[in-house]
Amino acid sequence: TIEKTLAIIKPDAFEKEYEILDTILRNGFFVLNKMKIHLSPEQASEFYEEHYNKSFFSRLIHYISSGYIIVLVLGKQNAVLDWRNLIGPTDSEKARESHPHSLRALYGKDKEVNAFHGSDSLESAKREIKFFFPNLVEEPVALEN
Ligand code: CMP
Asked: What residues does the Nucleoside diphosphate kinase-like domain cover (predicted)?
């Protein structure tokens, strides 16, 4: 089935936006929505609230609010899993060893500065899309004849 997922091009990869969008399209994704935004630390904390207790939380918030990001709603069959496969493992250094063609292998630095985000489930995708695009209708409205 066709799914939507939320993708983020993080500050460290922001300048490569067009090259990355080209790769995204060549991999069969449709860009349904796109926004350039500079998150405040407060907004970033809300987005990453599930990581609040992690040791890396404050570094993550500092990183993600350090500059512009590109937020994308991507559509495709199995978009959630396919996007996570395209970006590769969280740790960019490990990605370079095990998934050398993945986006994190190509653009990320390490496990923290990893250039991309992808929703980890359909449920997360729904929450994350709503976070950035609160006015989007959830399902296509059926046309009456
Ligand atoms: P992301 O997929 O956006 O989800 C949470 C982010 O936290 C992750 O990408 C990394 O940027 C960061 N992160 C995850 N694990 C670690 C870790 N062990 N140390 C530091 N940062 C991490």
From this structure: 2-140
